[in-house]
Specification:
The chain has a single domain (6-337), classed as Alpha-Beta Barrel (TIM Barrel), CATH 3.20.20. It contains 13 helices and ten strands. The chain has helices at residues 6-19, 33-42, 49-60, 76-79, 89-95, 125-134, 155-174, 193-213, 240-254, 271-283, 298-308, 315-332, 341-344; strands at 25-29, 69-74, 99-103, 108-110, 117-119, 139-146, 178-185, 222-223, 261-264, 291-296. It is globular and about 50 Å long. The structure holds 2-O-methyl-1,6-di-O-phosphono-D-mannitol. Residues 28, 30-32, 35, 73, 103, 107, 143, 184, 265-267, 296-299 line the site of 2-O-methyl-1,6-di-O-phosphono-D-mannitol.
Length: 346
């Protein structure tokens, strides 16, 4: 049991209740400056504080966003920025009853003694969270990555990342912030679906063991895993149903039913693949103990960013495209996406 007061537990539960809503998911708009620069550079969009603010404003002011999105993960810079109407972005979201969240990890570092990565950012986290909460954040996110190759992920990387995710989650819960736990098994490589299944099983099993050890209240966490897929250079032919079955099977084997919601990352799948795979999970007849939805960055934003291109005259069109994409993801989160809908839907 977590060592947090009943007032804090109630606070955590009310945030979870507002987030884990059937038919709604999370928008991950928390790309660090390095990552958003890469995305902008690829489209020849200048990457400045103002262009990042403009882009995030475009996303967050998209009409009817609140019909499909229950929470947005922001990057620290955006948490403290304001809209053109001088409203802070967290406030703007709260006015739409969308819950603001914040990425709190400080990125990846080499795990000494290996060629693998761990995630930094635990030092001073408690104090940072208090500031983020004062600014409106109600949930947080920490991402660990696992790279599949012949000898990786190593047991050391799996243990270290699980330990750090659990320490982060415990610190979040102490401050009344709901932690998103994001263990991402990377899609890069030529590994098979089976190999991804086995790695994902070990990763998730270890994460939940460490969450238990660190007394994290499972009713008040959000799991953000990767789907179980073959590597992006594997030649295996796999259907959406195969991915859905493998993903659900690994989750059932490793994730306790006390966890209220699982919100997938898209992890470099195409936007349509991610949506179709999520949809297929809901067509699988198994009854699931968790809400099963999305927390996509690229799969929601890619078509919109491609349409915007950093130009004010493209803003409305980009918002329409973004709105369409979040609606498709929302339909997939209840198994109602139909093939071809993306080209028909207005
Ligand atoms: C894996 O990345 C997360 C989900 O995004 P995709 O749906 O595109 O896979 C995403 O939230 C990510 O953690 C943020 O974009 C921050 O990433 P960086 O690399 O900037 O820390």
């Amino acid at each position: 049991m977590a060592i947090v007061s009943s007032t804090v537990i109630n606070e955590l539960k009310s945030t979870i209740k507002a987030i884990a809503v059937s038919g709604k998911g999370l928008l991950a708009a928390d790309e660090s400056t390095g990552t958003i620069s890469k995305r902008f550079n690829a489209l020849n969009i200048a990457c400045t504080e103002e262009s990042r603010r403009n882009y995030r404003e475009l996303l967050l002011t998209t009409p009817s966003l609140e019909k499909y999105i229950s929470g947005v993960i922001l990057y620290e810079e955006t948490l403290y920025q304001k809209s053109t109407q001088d409203i802070s972005f967290p406030e703007l979201l709260m006015q739409k009853k969308i819950i603001p969240g914040i990425k709190v990890d400080k990125g990846l570092i080499q795990l000494p003694g290996t060629d693998e990565k761990s995630t930094q950012g635990l030092d001073g986290l408690f104090e940072r969270l208090k500031d983020y909460k004062a600014q409106g954040a109600r949930f947080a996110k920490w991402r660990a990555i696992y790279s599949i190759a012949k000898n990786t992920p190593s047991r050391l990387a799996i243990q270290t990342n699980a330990e750090d995710l659990a320490r982060y989650a415990a610190i979040c819960q102490e401050t009344g912030i709901v932690p998103i736990i994001e263990p991402e098994v990377l899609i890069d490589g030529d590994h098979t679906l089976d190999r991804c299944f086995n790695v994902s099983a070990e990763v998730l099993h270890t994460v939940f063991h460490k969450l238990y050890t660190h007394k994290v209240l499972l009713e008040c966490v959000i799991l953000k895993p990767s789907m179980v897929t073959p590597g992006n250079s594997c030649l295996q032919q796999i259907s959406h149903q195969d991915i859905a079955e493998a993903t659900i099977s690994v989750l059932k084997q490793t994730v306790p039913s006390a966890v209220p919601t699982i919100n997938f990352l898209s992890g470099g799948q195409s936007p349509l693949q991610a949506i179709q795979n999520l949809n297929a999970m809901h067509q699988n007849k198994t009854i699931l103990p968790w809400n099963l939805s999305f927390s996509f960055a690229r799969a929601l934003q890619e078509p919109c960013m491609n349409a915007w291109l950093g130009k004010a005259e493209n803003r409305n069109m980009a918002q329409e495209i973004f709105s369409k994409q979040v609606k498709l993801a929302s339909l997939a989160s209840v198994g109602k996406y139909e093939h071809g809908l993306e080209s028909k839907q207005k």
